[in-house]
Design a protein that fits this description.
By secondary structure, the chain is mainly α. About 65% of the residues lie in helices and about 0% in strands. It has 23 helices and no strands. It has helices at about 15-25, 40-50, 55-70, 70-85, 90-100, 105-115, 120-130, 140-145, 155-165, 170-180, 185-195, 205-210, 215-225, 235-240, 250-255, 260-280, 285-300, 300-315, 320-335, 335-345, 350-360, 365-380, 390-400.
Length: about 400
């Protein structure tokens, strides 16, 4: 089983900007969070927006923090203008991401305009936005783009934006065609989108792919589990007897998602994680177990999230922490309420938050991270001053440096 991945995770993540983030993060954000949105001067806001792409991590993170905490009536018009007019393409990209944190209707127009941008980053963010905010009127344009978009980090987001509207027959026809052709990298993105958006109409194609040995077998198995069609038990049981060891965690996860022997399959993943941590040479199995527990946690299995937190926070082994942190951070993005509940009650809250921060540093899903940041800020502002939840949000804001 592969780590939580593909274009939605950690390919840009090893670039120099993110290296700076790992080295420098956490300093400026440790101060007490203000009690609500702040008013700043127009000059201060424009200066902050202009520094969103600064090579110095502290400078650009401080700039982003200023923008995030500015009242929406000020921030939104300035960000919309930056998306359209800023000369620096990375600043336009960061402005577009930050714009999503204000939940303003003008964001949609900025996203529409960004779909035609030559900047891959802007197009990827726009398609991701429309995955979270489906608009049936966009389907014809998305289907047209599907025939020509080849950006390595853009096309998977386009596929997911279409998969979010799988009730439309035109979308179904197009995506069923795409899952059977092209590079495995792109086919994998279609399969993942089918699972995440519970595309029951793709059952036959996914079952066929799952029966074939190869790099897409675990993807298809997971997608079948996420969709939840009980018919998948037959092909999953069949391949469980013959599939290679690295694929077994995916199959166990899928069968658990279908509601069959879930405690034993989840226990298998947890035990496998512990075994691989304690015995060298099982890194691929460790990644599969961590990713499988992450998928279960996203689906609402709180015990799986707890297993990840315990395994990661309790290990000093980087080979273990990295895949566990990545899976744990993915859970935080895709099932934020479950993650917040776990952190609030966790006996080693600081260790679990540190694990989450490591995972966030590896994830490239900037729009989804911004959604998480916005949730944390709103929760902080809306919680009683002395409440545990407010204290937790302050800790998250400080450690994740937003």
């Amino acid at each position: 089983m592969k780590t939580p991945r593909t274009p939605r995770t950690a390919f840009f993540v090893l670039c120099s900007l993110c290296s700076l983030c790992v080295l420098c993060g956490g300093g400026a954000a440790a101060a007490q969070e203000p009690s609500g949105p702040q008013a700043v001067s127009a000059a201060q806001l424009q200066a902050a927006i202009g520094k969103l792409g600064d090579l110095d991590y502290t400078t650009r993170s401080t700039a982003a923090r200023t923008v995030r905490r500015t009242a929406a009536t000020q921030a939104v018009p300035a960000l919309v203008q930056a998306v359209s007019e800023q000369a620096d393409g990375y600043v336009r990209y960061r402005a577009l991401v930050l714009l999503t944190g204000f939940n303003d209707p003008r964001t949609k127009d900025a996203m529409r305009q960004s779909l035609s941008s030559p900047n891959d980053r802007l197009r990827a963010v726009a398609y991701s936005f429309f995955e979270h905010n489906p608009d049936p009127d966009m389907i014809p344009a998305f289907l047209t783009a599907l025939d020509k978009e080849q950006g390595e980090f853009v096309r998977p987001e386009l596929v997911r934006a279409l998969a979010a509207q799988g009730s439309d027959p035109r979308v179904r026809q197009a995506l069923l065609r795409e899952v059977g052709r092209g590079e495995d990298f792109f086919r994998s993105a279609v399969i993942e989108a089918f699972g995440d958006h519970k595309a029951a109409y793709a059952y036959d194609q996914l079952a066929s792919i799952a029966r074939l040995d190869g790099p897409l077998q675990d993807d298809a198995a997971l997608a079948l589990g996420k969709i939840g069609d009980k018919r998948a038990l037959e092909p999953l049981a069949a391949i469980q007897r013959t599939a290679p060891k690295p694929t077994q965690p995916s199959i166990a996860t899928a069968i658990c998602l279908l509601g069959t022997n879930c405690p034993s399959h989840q226990g298998y993943l947890s035990d496998l994680l512990k075994f691989a941590n304690e015995n060298a040479g099982f890194q691929e199995m460790l990644r599969g177990a961590a990713a499988g527990l992450g998928v279960l946690a996203v689906a609402g299995h709180a015990e799986a999230a707890a297993s990840l937190a315990a395994a990661g926070a309790g290990s000093a082994n980087d080979a273990t922490r990295a895949p566990v942190a990545l899976a744990f951070a993915t859970v935080a993005l895709r099932n934020t309420p479950l993650t917040i509940d776990l952190l609030e009650k966790h006996e080693d809250q600081a260790g679990a938050i540190a694990l989450l921060a490591e995972g966030f540093d590896m994830l490239e899903e900037d729009l989804d991270k911004e959604r998480f940041f916005a949730f944390a800020r709103r929760t902080y502002w809306g919680s009683p001053q002395s409440s545990p939840r407010r204290a937790l949000m302050q800790s998250l804001i400080g450690k994740l440096d937003f």
